[in-house]
Amino acid sequence: MKILLSIAISVFATAHLFSQDQAILKIRADHEPRHFDLLKEYAAFLSLPNTMNDPSELVANAEFISGMMKKRGIRNIQLLHADAEGAIPAVYGEALTPGATRTVIFYAHYDGQPVNPDKWAEGLSPFTPQLASGPLDKGGQLLDFPAANADLNPDWRLYARSAADDKAGVFTILNAYDAIRRTGLAPHVNIKFFFEGEEERGSTNLGEILQKHRDLLRADAWIICDGPMHASGKKQITFGVRGDVNLHLTVYGAKRPLHSGNYGNWAPNPAMKLVRLLATMKDDEGHVLVDGFYDDVIPLSASERAALAAIPDPAPMMQQELAFAEPESPTRTFLESITTLPTLNINGIVSANVGRLASNIIPTTATATLDLRLVKGNDSRRQTGKVIDHIRNQGYLVLDREPTDEERLANANIATVRSGTGYNAQRTSMDLPVSQLVIEAVKSTTSQDVVLMPSAGGSLPLYLFEEILHTPPITVPVVNYDNNQHGENENVQIGFLWNGMETIAAIMLIDFK
Amino acid sequence: MKILLSIAISVFATAHLFSQDQAILKIRADHEPRHFDLLKEYAAFLSLPNTMNDPSELVANAEFISGMMKKRGIRNIQLLHADAEGAIPAVYGEALTPGATRTVIFYAHYDGQPVNPDKWAEGLSPFTPQLASGPLDKGGQLLDFPAANADLNPDWRLYARSAADDKAGVFTILNAYDAIRRTGLAPHVNIKFFFEGEEERGSTNLGEILQKHRDLLRADAWIICDGPMHASGKKQITFGVRGDVNLHLTVYGAKRPLHSGNYGNWAPNPAMKLVRLLATMKDDEGHVLVDGFYDDVIPLSASERAALAAIPDPAPMMQQELAFAEPESPTRTFLESITTLPTLNINGIVSANVGRLASNIIPTTATATLDLRLVKGNDSRRQTGKVIDHIRNQGYLVLDREPTDEERLANANIATVRSGTGYNAQRTSMDLPVSQLVIEAVKSTTSQDVVLMPSAGGSLPLYLFEEILHTPPITVPVVNYDNNQHGENENVQIGFLWNGMETIAAIMLIDFK
Prior knowledge:
The structure is a homodimer.
Chain A: H1 2-31, H2 35-46, H3 55-71, E1 75-80, E2 90-95, E3 103-109, E4 130-132, E5 142-143, E6 157-159, H4 167-183, E7 190-196, H5 206-212, H6 214-217, E8 221-224, E9 236-238, E10 240-241, E11 243-252, E12 258-259, H7 260-263, H8 270-279, H9 302-310, H10 315-322, H11 334-339, E13 345-351, E14 361-362, E15 365-374, H12 380-393, E16 397-399, H13 405-410, E17 414-419, E18 426-427, H14 433-443, E19 451-453, H15 463-469, E20 473-475, E21 491-493, H16 494-508
Parallel strand pairs in A: 3-7, 3-8, 8-20, 9-19, 16-17
Antiparallel strand pairs in A: 1-2, 2-7, 4-5, 4-6, 6-21, 10-18, 11-15, 11-17, 12-14, 13-15
Helix pairs in contact in A: 1-4, 1-14, 1-16, 4-16, 5-15, 14-16
């Protein structure tokens, strides 16, 4: 596959290889002396809380981004709104190239996952960006913010919510463009910018925004700057994503909490009910036991399989670092697990309290949040339907609301199942000319191999770009893989910010004939 | 059994029946006009936070109790300390009767279960006592605290942590004695008072306190005023308790939270591990599948079985009120469930977050707190050992601390199991003379049957009184059964406080030859 790719690249792009290499050196010479200022601005950006679903927090972020764009000479800056109540606008801007017939839009998102500050390590706070000499769980030490003339070690980590996911995308896209502008390099394409504010809640209104502004947003490619790079630190291009949908599942016991001594053995225990129900969903090799769970999967093409086989397996190194003895399944490789198969995972379970907060009670309810990742062929509603059917087949009355007393008295097993907004997987063919040009551009910025992933494990609603705009999305992640995105102690390794600017700048400089 | 009991009573106590009835009428005439003052003092008592394990909170409660005792002319008031660091003292006092050769000690505890104020109903706060016209979950409305001359409806509820469990015990004991003193009634026995501060944490130091003060605390009977009365509202005497021990169980996944898309299907999920482990512990009829779990059980005696059979089954009424369709087991009655069998119950499970707080992650750990109730014959350490063996038999390395990285890398399944301080069950024979006298005294205060329970479902370390002091404990609960003890929205129905004073006063007036 590597040889085939080289041939493909030579056909489309050899002519530009040398000039882009020169361009990257210019970009580097421009950004290196400015790292302190870039970091300072980034810390200010990360100080703005950006909890998904919080309009006032998110609008403040959108305004900050608009300001960053204005400072960099980007034009036609505007908020693209959807009509829905509580919808969070996307931030749009453009830098048109006179005479250009091709357009590339760069995407990142500025909203973040919810935080539980209590779970963050001592000295960290989600919205008080904090530098450390390395990962805190591997001996990194907290650092004071450096002086203006200090040397910034590229191995340092910057801890904050969205430091990696995905304000890093906003940062690298805007600063890549700025570096091009500052160095006087001339793009061949129109460059547009699109920063979403609703990605973490499932991009509820992205479809409507794309639909309403389809002329403004029409392009030859969307470059999606999100997600982590390969664990080896090699640059990476990803041609698809898994889909995603959540299920929130609650089962019931007695209406009020009961003393476990005075009622134990008699009153039904919802925690035990939930445990028994969830245990029916997977076998001990991680195979999902829900009927038909794997039926709709469209397998990888031959070239996608070959690309996957060419990627060094990061599993042994990651497993060592993450300190576990066995992956969930003894028969699947890491890349197969996250690329070729749908998942059913427990994101969280809560029933009453544990440890020092525990009381000797029989809880009233037990709740789990499930995460279903989808691959090409899965439909989010069909997939959640299978899980709901499975719950029914275990003898449960399934409701989409709390049960009434009458329902409780008539049904021994009741589950309330609420489904989050889901979306399906998407895959762009690696063989498209634009795919080949992007591969070549990224290769021009690094002396190492570039990892080509047929699909990421993570999710973005990229199918929308195909369905609504008929434009292929290609994902170019820029952050370190060990960034704790979505969890506590999220961080970015700052060297990845500088490298990411070069990656994105190279794509902005593509000569797309 | 009822006929047998009547005969037994006539042998021991018929002579006192009339005089006690008169005494109870006197007691009632004394307390009825004072309900407002009693309630006001009780609200002040309940305003003192009394979280188990919090020495400063609990010492403030002990001081308040000492003050109540002093006001009531109780002598030799003192705090009985254990030597252990952080031990909470018991409050002792006495009212000796000149010439008396018999002594009865009255026990209650003043510490409370931990609270999670967020879970309490709107308008309630654990340590701001609040009156309501009835149970809030059955349409009761919050009430302003009444004026001094207001009529207090005995159906009203007073909401606060420990309103039922077990400051109600302290309240009724001290006010029962006070009413005796105020009315000039003359007890035949020495009356002693013992209020423990460590019951909710398993009475860690009670044994030491009894041992150190065994002369002061020697008696002919301990009357334990704790736990709820029969669901019918009938007065009740309980001759034993189940033992209790908790297990805190944590299983592990990767060392840091992982994005469920980028790692899902590959990284082991501790929530799913825990679910699968817990599901092995019980079948779908509530039978515990841990090897030998029921082996040590000493069955009830013939007379205990007969007493149990005479008790009206509260299950249908309770089930209706608690709104569930089927008890845990289709083959056990309520009374069998809580009296004759050890239990294994999940008190709580937590792994990451659910619902709006959930993130799309693979959690790092999953924790459950288990509650094991014990019956006569079970030993707490032997019983937890069986559960630990069961966990081992499921392929787990069991530790009593967090695993090291080396252990994580060498063992696919690791469980940290920490055992709380546990204690064994206890049963006093109903056929003892003192048991019969107490039965007769309680009967003198009510026109209804008195429910005689061979054992409660709940737990107190009553075996200590037998083992250390060789004194039979007998439990006389005074609070309504639907009091939410240990959970949120704990409450007492205030009429039970007034009736409880009469119950306890009648026992204080026993003529124990």
